[in-house]
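User: These chains co-purify. Model them together.
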Amino acid sequence: MGPISSLISMPEWLDLLIALLIGVGFGFALEQAGFSSSRKLAGMFYGYDATVIKVFFTAAIVALVGSQLLSYFGLLNLNMVFVNEYYVAASIIGGIIMGAGFIMGGFCPGTGLCALSIGKIDAMIFFLGGLTGAFLFAETYPSIQKLANGYYKGPVKINEVMGISPGLFTFLLIAAAVVMFWIAELAEKRFARPDITNEI
Amino acid sequence: MNPYMAGTMLGIVLLLAMFLAGRGLGASGGLKYCVVSIVGAVDRSHADKSIYYSKYFEDGKKPLKNWLTIEIFGVIAGGFLSGALSKRLKFKIEKSPNISNTRRLIFAFLGGVFFVYGAQLARGCTSGAALSGMAVLSVAGFVTMIAIFGSAYMFAWFFRKNWI
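Assistant: Joint model of the two components:
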């Protein structure tokens, strides 16, 4: 029963080789989605291109359904898969700061890396900004430590909070995604900007 | 590529990461380890004294030899491969024709600063917190996702000149 890393004590080189290959797949998928273009990503927030939400929710649902199927057939122990810990204030405030960065820079860290790999100079500068941001965080950490570690709730799962099964939550999420995809398709027509979308 | 196809491919990669390594995807974490190792190389005594950096050097650990750091080298290789196959390799500053190169680059830099600062605070960015978090049904993943997108919509009006 997976994850494979919990079954065998993997030598370090194999663990890092998996990291490299997962990274290659990740970068390849992001680039194929068109996420090496900041104007395409920013389209999400002005309505002319809603690729972001389509790719994002499709990916989340594929991984969610896939992992539950693997767990159902006894191939993956979901208790051994990392669940993000919930620090209420840090998640919300961090998310708001990230959103501001998204609309200014036009990238998130993953898409920025993928854009710089194909030669986007703006993405290289975004990357330098990103390193600076990580440095500033490290240097200011002592003064924001309380905020970063406060209101800790542990690795809580959303279906448990709602008191429903993972399967039912997944079903509801798929239904919500279908509605969002439909709105996304409408938005792309309503806010169409052929002058931009023909260039990207 | 069709967005739903690309999303499926991305989802399969995420599922593979969960199945093989028991973890999700990440991007900002790798940047952090790069910074930690640069700081360690430039001023080791500063790193050892800091409550933030010191934990990454305990027991002779090497921050560059880390899952997340190696993963982002993979992201760059994978992006390059895809760009080469789809003939998109080209040095260029991508921007709206209404703004100057300098303006685009200044905002790109600021965007990077904000995004990664926020990602350190939230313990993950769009990949590690929002996408991977949602795939394991974590509340943190959903909250971070809503906060990122909600905030970007909220600020979109102020930065509209840069894009439309």
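Strands of chain A lie at 86-87, 152-154.
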